[in-house]
Design brief:
single chain; 184 residues; alpha+beta; 4-stranded antiparallel beta sheet; 3-stranded antiparallel beta sheet; 10 strands
Length: 184
Amino acid sequence: MSIGIDIVDLAAVPAMDAQRTRRYCEKVCSAEEAEFILAAEDSQKVLWQFWALKEAIYKCTFDPHQPKAFCAREINIPIAFFSAKGGFECYFENAPLYLDLLQQDNAIIASASIRREVEFYRVPYQNRDLLYKTITKKAATKLGLPRVALQHNEQGQPGLWVPDLEEHIPISMAHHGRFAVWGI
């Protein structure tokens, strides 16, 4: 896939004391990442930023022909990302990736892409059917097409099917708590 998006609704994650935060960091982060997170002023927020970035990278780099389970600890986020302004270029498994992170209304949104610019849209999440309708309506408008359909390709990856062009445009989507996000 060429894009990965993840979202964390901070209001929907359980509060963790310092000991639980440390144990969770040890489980899902490298030693360097855990040290950075635990030294942060708001370690829980930074922990969920790392989690969202790891999920986005996994979605972006997932290869259906060589599937492997998501293991957050195996995906290392460069600490330099957190001092960068705007997007950040890094390499994952020898391939260039662009990472970005945004916080809106208590929601952390992370993106990973092989392209520098990612367009994403955050919407309220109520249920999957409503989310799919929202995505197809907004995507058709954005692309200037009379209609698109949200479909999964033969590898199970979501995308926009454009019947008039017989084209599958990869997208990424995620939901957590009150929010959903999708990117193109």
